[in-house]
Write a structure and sequence with these properties.
heterodimer, A: mainly alpha, 2 domains, about 70% helix, extended, B: Arp2/3 complex 21 kDa subunit ARPC3, 2 strands, globular
Chain lengths: ~210, ~190
């Protein structure tokens, strides 16, 4: 249900995730100091052309950033008040360019590839107990739990409405939480039963069956 | 030596609360006339709940996990946003504030719980300090930096959200105390 990834075969899609992340970092170093609205508008136009090259899905993707518009308007107004129209235009354009550039990386990279690319810079964190395998499991669990939680809530709300003219209140939310917690503990038990929680060392080595 | 910071049950609960923060993003925003028509999203309510329900470390882990999944590309921020773009957007600081906010909320809830204050008051103080003050302490400088405006102007620009945030803190405190009452029997949530 959840996808930040737009399937496609463009050059961007074929580039390794790590390369794209490094390119994004380098581009942002170049773009952040720019303060000419004309130049920034040209960069934005280039980014928009890339988006439109993905066709309708690309444009729909652009529309997702609509929710950022009110904030940009506020920032524009504050900047005009504090500085000048030129400065205001430049900051709003800069933000739009940076956000959309980063989104190009996201839409052209599968979540798994992104995780793999991030595993390398995160390796030193292992010392602090951040195990990539457990992190990957946690991410997968979150993605699975979101629709489950939404469905469970909808189910409980419908059941409530079928029985009561009053609006669903605290008792329903309490029951929802207890149910969700019970579910998560069952998932944990199932994971442990499959040897997930066992310390790595004591896990018996798997021998191939002959 | 095996250093796993969380046992499996805690890890799955962290994922559950992270998913709850995400699910709250799907709650339609409420438009309050008193807040000048600024939409109030339920998402930051989840940050307060994470700290109140899971405690400091696991609470921060839950909010951190949520932010990580968003950055990986899942469009789970309210309004369907997600991906690396949010790091470049003016509200990026608030996202970092979520992680710190989860921690501070949990820490205060743990510390104050030892002082025999009423549970609801404890939860409310923790939610305000962690879920509002801490989140803004990161969010405002971020906004000021990204948008190139002064801190004072950033504060003026976001102050319309404060009434909504206070309502959420009260909501989180009431919810958390209700839920914890039924949880504590089955599950000691603090390691």
């Amino acid at each position: 249900m959840i996808a930040g990834y737009l399937s496609g075969r463009s050059v961007l899609h074929r580039l390794p995730a790590g390369v794209k992340l490094i390119a994004l970092a380098m581009l942002s170093v170049l773009i952040v100091p720019l303060d000419s609205p004309v130049l920034l508008a040209m960069v934005l136009a280039a980014v928009l052309i890339v988006f439109s090259s993905f066709g309708r899905p690309g444009l729909r993707r652009l529309a997702q950033w609509r929710s950022l518009l009110p904030l940009l308007v506020i920032i524009f107004a504050l900047q005009v008040w504090a500085a000048s129209v030129e400065v205001a235009l430049a900051s709003v354009l800069r933000i739009a360019v940076m956000v959309l550039l980063a989104d190009l990386v996201t839409l052209s990279t599968r979540m798994q590839d992104m995780m793999d690319a991030l595993a390398l810079p995160m390796r030193p964190l292992k010392r602090f107990g951040l195990d990539p395998e457990r992190l990957a499991l946690a991410v997968a669990l979150v993605l699975r739990f979101v629709p489950v939680l939404l469905d469970t809530w909808r189910g409980r709300e419908e059941a409530w409405r079928a029985r009561s003219p009053r609006r669903p209140g605290l008792p329903l939310i309490g029951a929802f939480f207890s149910g969700a917690l019970a579910m998560s503990d069952q998932v944990a038990e199932a994971l442990d039963a499959r040897g997930f929680g066992a310390p790595r060392r004591s896990r018996p080595a798997r021998k191939p069956r002959i | 030596m095996d250093h796993q910071i969380f046992e499996t049950r805690t890890l799955v609960r962290i994922a559950l609360i992270a998913a709850l923060i995400a699910a709250l993003g799907f709650v339609p925003p409420i438009y309050l006339p008193l807040a000048a028509g600024v939409p109030i999203t339920a998402q930051s309510l989840g940050v307060m709940l994470a700290g109140l329900l899971l405690g400091s470390r696991a609470g921060a882990a839950a909010t951190g996990l949520f932010v990580f999944v968003v950055l990986l590309g899942a469009p789970l921020l309210s309004g369907g946003r997600g991906g690396l773009g949010v790091l470049a957007s003016p509200t990026a600081g608030f996202l970092i504030g979520y992680v710190a906010g989860g921690y501070v909320t949990g820490l205060l809830a743990e510390r104050l719980a030892a002082r025999n204050l009423p549970a609801l008051a404890t939860a409310l103080i923790a939610a305000i300090a962690g879920g509002i003050l801490t989140v803004y302490a990161f969010g405002l400088p971020g906004l000021a930096m990204m948008a190139n405006i002064s801190l004072a102007k950033a504060f003026i620009g976001t102050s319309v959200f404060l009434p909504g945030d206070l309502i959420k803190a009260v909501g989180a405190a009431v919810l958390a105390t209700t839920v914890l009452r039924s949880w504590s029997v089955a599950a000691p949530h603090r390691p």
